[in-house]
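Section: Multi-chain targets

For targets with more than one molecule, the full set of components is provided together so that the structure can be written out for the assembly as a whole rather than chain by chain. Components appear in the order listed by the source. The example entry contains two components.
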Amino acid sequence: MADIPPRIAVRRTYKLYVGGAFPRSESGRSYPVTSASGVHLGNAALASRKDVRDAVAAARKAFPGWSGRTAYNRGQILYRVAEMMEGRREQFAAEVAEGVGKAKAHTLVSSAIDRWVYYAGWADKLGQVLGGANPVSGPYFNVSEPEPTGVVGVLAPGGSSLLGLVSVLAPVITSGNTAVLVASERAPLPAVTLAEALATSDLPAGVANVLTGRVAELAAPLAGHADVNALDLTGAGDLATGLEELAATTLKRVLRPGHDDWSDPDPGLSRVRPFLETKTVWHPIGL
Amino acid sequence: MEIFEYAPAPESRAIVSIRPSYDLFIDGEFVEAKSDERIVTVNPADEEPLAEVAAAGDADVERAFAAARRAYERVWSALPGAERGKYLFRIARIIQERARELAVLESLDNGKPIKETRDVDLPLVAAHFFYYAGWADKLAHAGTAGTRPLGVAAQVIPWNFPLLMLAWKVAPALATGNTVVLKPAETTPLTALAFAEICQEAGLPPGVVNIVTGAGDTGRAVVAHPEADKIAFTGSTEVGRQIARAVAGTDKRLTLELGGKGANIVYDDAAIDQAVEGIVTGIFFNQGHVCCAGSRLLVQESIAEELLERLRARISLLRLGDPLDKNTDIGAINSAAQLARIRELTLAGESEGATGWSPACPLPERGYWFPPTVFTGVTQAHRIAREEIFGPVLSVLTFRTPDEAVAKANNTPYGLSAGVWTEKGSLMLWTASRLRAGVVWSNTFNVFDPASPFGGYKESGYGREGGRHGLEAYLG
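Its structure, encoded as tokens over all components, is:
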């Protein structure tokens, strides 16, 4: 009896996530992703400025629907992302483990899952914490409430490929914004896997769009794009000042890079507020 | 005239399996009661017994509080908020998964139409757990006076929205780190016992939720227990007064959600068809077994005749009968005792000089039923304008000016809810600002949401349930 030949594993193609679909870069390019010790892990799509424009268009198209959902519904969907991540935790842990070790990787994956749960809970509460009635001096009903600003460009932190990634994406979309996210350049694979989890989480197409590639190549077209309302420069590094200048052209709201502690389980609304507008409605009271 | 012929469309009760007998749920397990007393819960639509439950005695209540205290000290109060929250998210998900089963069970035990349990009660129950789950790790952001749990909460809930009232009590208590001893109503214990199974299925640590079934004596033992750090009661104003008296001079915290006699004000510029729908929802939703029911219709004199004509036509189309039929609008009255109270008050309405009207409406032979009823010629002195009927009975009064509408609306010891129907925003806001009521619905009625605080002014109780405000009752 002949030996059964060893099974050859089916390898995964790492693609972009734009408008709910998984395209390769329109440029036809990819770049090798290696572990800290130099082992080849796979080829990630090397997105272009044209991919940025496609992603912004997808995010804009998704904005009315996503921001128009009830906050409760958005919360349910973010919670569903946590459920989907929990089911793939071994895969995430394996990808995150490149560079941090196995035990730490599992902790990071757990924190990333819990972060979705955390921001799921904020969806239908931030209005009560940030909004309210204003006691104006006159017979007027006057109420302020937060609203999402629109399309947010997010440069994910380079050094925290999963927990940092989730920590910047979830607070942007929980309030109803849509996002174009540029993944960690050095470690983009967890972002691709997250995109695959997002695609099975009832998250409407285009709410979160994930690009992999060179931050230096993608950040400028994102920062300069006239249909982007706000920028999270967390992963911008030395590019931050130049990008903030570009953003000024259309007066984008900008969150500058800070000293983030991704392990804090209760970051509050610090990453939600920068991407909100406040709308105040007046109405007379009287006969 | 019948416009449509309706064929029966019953929801199957096969989805529910009711055990012949239920024990108490204490310390994570169903345990036999030390008390020998048993209660039979019946289906109010046909008076058939559904199951027998224990009537917990003092020793049983003692055991429940001991379990709750242990769970509070050893497990629950020390658990990080995020982890507490995850248990509540699990419970919310299991409720969503078992929603239809619970809806059918609720309709069987309570008598309310399946379209309400299916489309209102159960979605709200799941949403309430989901909402408060999200608060568990965010208490520092809620703006409450404190962020520490109180300890063990004694909770007594009514029969009109059994599982929803359980959710209103249990979800915020657990989210804030308290443990619970809960007593469901005597006539509607079954969904609370199903909830006990859900706690087990969710892996909730033993003793965090304890459910003791029983009647008034059990309820008194629960609220009087020295280990109760907080009491939350929903029910009659009379029992609320007794509890308030009993806690006087102690450190116990108390919230009360009591009776109401809600005014539903319809101005002459209101969209009449919408208003008619809102009046119907306001008083006939859940057979009028609603503390915030719009049981007093205040209609501007100039449109009263037209409005009442349309209202009677609309009421004539309501379908009363089998609660499990998907077409049913009005189900059974929950108990013989409640039916007797509704009859007594409507007889008083007639004898005091008001005029009652009901549509031609055949009532089933078995079970507890009362037809939708509208009283006109009602004055503010009539008992049916002053007392809570808690049934499908509407009292109609008229007014000429907005000032008169507000004066009449506020002429009650209660202050839970009110409605305002007008197309003019400034008039709506003017009216709302003068109404002494905890919830004012405008151009809608009887809508609820876990994010929205609910509770009364005056003798409708104190404290709020729901929303950010609902956390306050469980934190110190």
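The first strand of chain A starts at residue 30 and ends at 34.
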